[in-house]
Design goal:
The structure holds two protein chains of two kinds. Chain A is mainly alpha-helical. Chain A has 20 helices and four strands. In chain A, strand 1 and strand 2 form a beta hairpin. Chain B has one domain: P-loop containing nucleotide triphosphate hydrolases (Rossmann fold, 3-Layer(aba) Sandwich), CATH 3.40.50. Classes of the chains: A mainly alpha, B alpha/beta. Chain B: This is Branched-chain amino acid transport ATP-binding protein LivF.
């Protein structure tokens, strides 16, 4: 194990706490001022940081971080600790803000240096910002941490809580639209750092705890709002297909990852060839489509094709699963790995030379026609309430429906008797069997069910991609799907959505790292396994959450004793 | 209630159980005692369907069950608390217990039995939201027994409940078994600790390398000279 040395001891914090506060406050205020100074010598870097008194958007974000730091430091003085009042963790919040701001400013300065060729192109404002964040960083670290936050227990009037969810969602929509709009890698990375900083502040200060408690209380509102935001996204694009094409790719990837999440995250089966099921669905849809290159002269309506695609994928799943799911996990990984390759090579060989002509071999099936639902042509631009929506927007909406369906299936299964059976299998297969869990049956169900969902997603992907070739379905894609799940948090919906989005979006936006992307992903995964093996979003089981609440309860009570000398009765 | 006839079980090439025959009557506590490798655990696993016999018959409540899959055996009223407890360490006590009732669909009955288990083991109620892996061996054993009881079994099979426990904890577990017996639960108990098992059993079978070498009431076996010599450490 690597352990980081403790430079700042609690004693040091006790002695220098007030000094730290002043330093941090000074740093925060300086960071608010710095955006009004010029940061770069040339307008070509990032979003033009050359002006005095006229900050660029990125500079404004720096100001926001400065304001967050100052706000928490002031709050800490203003909020007198009171019994029963939910506690905000001001110092950890300020600390996270300062760390985030430091990373943010460093990234900006590095971007300026890279884009303009050397650190000399950083103007004095940039250095002021760097000094400001350094001061804030050191200052907040010198302050005593204080007690953990209890904000999660706070309640607000229901309309206010709903409003908070709406605000969060609006912010998410805005952030996504802004990030996708940036073609400059420096801006994109810096913005990502800003978002990360804000999220870190919210987690550390306890605001995130409150938000997650609120969203637990208003689960329906949250889900509705999330889908509304996703639904609204194309309307922010003004008919442009550039970002929508990325968004549809992200959503197909996320939908597939969510399907795999049932297999890996819920049932605990390591499937290394999942992409083959997506491919099977895509090939079935392509072959049954009205493409001139389709090899079967039967073209049923698309809804039938979707079902056939899913069924074929599920049947493949049953064929692979029934002999291998009886043996222990490692074998399944090996067999699915091989299956993925067998699928790709078979699709390459079904070209009429080595076998029946089904897939046109490595050429695949091109010119797959656009989908057409009751006269609604997915290939052309439509207008809705005055906003033009391009081809990719059409597919985006359809895919949104599909991912919604998959998430619904996922959560329903997770909370069902089947879900409990999977939990038992994951924990201890033999014991599960002794409890009356049909281990083989439930595993096979997960495996084939996951395959079915991938097949359905594949059938839409075929039309969206226009052509289907074997080399789209290589092992690397399966590995990426798995990485998205591990990175985001196995068995969670939110985590896998975030993981899939990050993994698909990063290479699109960071073209310059595309050659190194495997290296970077590998590195990130290794670091994750060391520092946060549960993924970005941890899968806390309900009962354990109760348990944590109990601890918070115990905390509140001990607070009362400390502050009033007595324990009030249960009022 | 349970009848095992001329049961043979092989592990690979090793014959672990060689033609044993025994019965468990309704309301009885029957124990299988014997040293390591005598075939006790294998016998239990075969009854609960986790292993398949090579030959022989197992009858439960007048029906043959030796080819019924394990997950269906539980539904018929046979619960197996496996060797080494096999609780789910990362799940909470309550989750563990609810998984014990996996084969059942009557929610009200499950809730009732949950209360019954909590009454029997107060410590489990106190720690119902705690991960079971943080428990001591004795507490885990209580959980394992409680979990097996959650399926509301007609016959409860306990495999080495005293394994690895302190003498005090072992006494506690044994008195629990006595309590269950007085409630009318039929129990098939497998133990290495012959003294404890025989003193509370109605009937006992002594196994040696896969064969039953002695059978008598618990009381008689306890005073049997051969048993005392071989299993109770007396000369």
């Amino acid at each position: 194990m690597i352990t980081l040395p403790t430079l700042v001891t609690p004693e040091l914090q006790q002695r220098h706490g007030s000094r730290g506060r002043i330093i941090a406050l000074f740093g925060g205020v300086l960071l608010i001022i710095a955006p009004f100074l010029p940061w770069a010598y040339s307008a070509r870097a990032l979003d033009d940081m050359t002006f005095l008194v006229d900050p660029s958007p990125l500079q404004y974000l720096g100001l926001v971080l400065g304001a967050i730091i100052v706000a928490f430091l002031v709050l800490q003085q203003v909020l007198k600790p009171a019994p029963r009042r939910p506690r905000t963790a001001c110092v950890p919040g300020a600390r996270a803000g300062a760390t985030g701001a430091l990373i943010y400013v460093v990234l900006i300065l590095v971007s300026i240096s890279v884009e303009l060729g050397g650190a000399v192109n950083v103007m004095y404002g940039g250095w002021v910002a760097l000094v400001a964040t350094l001061l804030a960083f050191v200052g907040t670290r010198l302050m005593p941490t204080g007690r953990p936050p209890t904000l999660a227990a706070a309640t607000a009037p229901a309309p206010l809580e709903v409003l908070a969810i709406a605000g969060l969602m609006a912010a998410a929509l805005f952030a996504a639209a802004y990030a996708l709009d940036q073609d400059d890698a420096g801006i994109f990375v810096s913005f990502l750092a800003f978002v990360g900083a804000v999220v870190a502040v919210m987690i550390r200060s306890g605001v995130m705890g409150w938000l997650s408690a609120v969203s637990q209380r208003h689960k329906k509102v949250l889900i509705l709002a999330a889908f509304l935001v996703a639904f609204m996204f194309p309307f922010t694009q003004d008919g442009s297909d550039a970002n929508m094409s990325i968004a549809t790719q992200v959503i197909i990837f996320a939908a597939t990852a969510m399907g795999l999440n049932i297999v890996v995250g819920l049932a605990g089966l390591l499937d290394l060839g999942y992409i083959a099921f997506l491919g099977a669905g895509a090939f079935v849809a392509a072959i049954l489509s009205e493409s001139a290159f389709s090899t079967i002269n039967w073209h049923p309506p698309f809804i039938v094709v979707v079902l056939i695609s899913g069924t074929v994928a599920a049947a493949l799943g049953l064929i692979i699963g029934s002999p291998t799911l009886r043996v222990s996990g490692d074998y399944l990984a090996i067999v699915t790995l091989a299956f993925g390759e067998i699928f790709r090579i078979s699709m390459n060989n079904l070209d009429g030379e080595d076998g029946p002509d089904l897939t046109n071999g490595s050429n695949g099936i091109p010119a797959i026609p656009e989908l057409n639902f009751f006269g609604f042509d997915f290939g052309i631009r439509h207008e809705l309430i005055g906003v033009p929506l391009g081809r990719f927007s059409n597919y985006y909406f359809l895919l949104l429906l599909v991912i919604g369906l998959i998430i619904l299936v996922f959560t329903r299964l997770n909370n069902s008797r089947i879900g409990r059976g999977w939990v038992a299998i994951r924990e201890d297969e033999r014991a599960a069997e002794a409890m009356g869990v049909n281990v083989f049956g439930l595993k096979l169900f997960a495996f084939a069910g996951g395959a079915f969902l991938a097949g359905v997603a594949g059938s839409i992907k075929a039309h969206q991609d226009v052509s289907v070739t074997p080399d789209q379905y290589v092992f690397l894609e399966s590995a990426f799907l798995l990485a998205a799940i591990v990175l985001g948090g196995m068995g969670t919906v939110l985590g896998v959505l975030i993981g899939a989005t990050l993994l698909k979006l990063m290479p699109e936006k960071l073209r310059f790292v595309s050659e190194y992307r495997l290296l970077i992903f590998g590195l990130v995964l290794v670091l994750m396994m060391r520092f946060r093996p549960e993924g970005l979003v941890a899968n806390q089981r309900r009962q354990l959450e109760f348990h944590e609440e109990d601890e918070e309860l115990a905390d509140r009570i001990s607070d009362e004793i400390a502050e009033t000398g007595t324990v009030k009765g249960a009022t | 209630m349970l009848e095992v006839k001329d049961l043979n079980v092989t592990y690979g090439r090793v014959r672990a159980v060689k033609g044993i025959t025994f019965t468990v009557e309704q309301g009885q506590v029957v124990t299988l005692v014997g040293t390591n490798g005598a075939g006790k655990t294998t016998t239990l696993k075969t009854i609960s369907g986790l292993l398949r016999p090579e030959s022989g018959e197992i009858w439960f409540e007048g029906k043959r069950i030796d080819s019924v899959p394990a997950h269906e055996v539980v539904g018929r009223g046979l619960a197996h608390s496996p060797e080494g407890r096999r609780i789910f360490p990362r799940l909470t006590v309550e989750d563990n217990l609810r998984l014990g009732a996996f084969a059942r669909k009557d929610k009200a009955g499950v809730a009732k039995d949950l209360r019954r288990v909590f009454d029997l083991f107060e410590i489990l109620q106190e720690r119902r939201a705690q991960p079971a892996g943080t428990f001591s061996g004795g507490e885990q054993q209580m959980l394992a027994i409680g979990r097996a009881m959650m399926s509301r079994p007609k016959l409860l099979m306990l495999d080495e409940p005293s394994m690895g426990l302190s003498p005090l904890m072992m006494q506690r577990i044994m008195s629990t078994i006595t309590e269950l017996k007085s409630e009318g639960v039929t129990i098939l108990l497998v133990e290495q600790n012959a003294q404890a098992a025989l003193s509370l059993a109605d009937f006992g079978y002594v196994l040696e390398v896969g064969k039953i070498v002695l059978q008598d009431s618990g009381k008689n076996l306890l005073v049997d000279e051969a048993v005392r010599k071989a299993y109770l450490g007396e000369d």
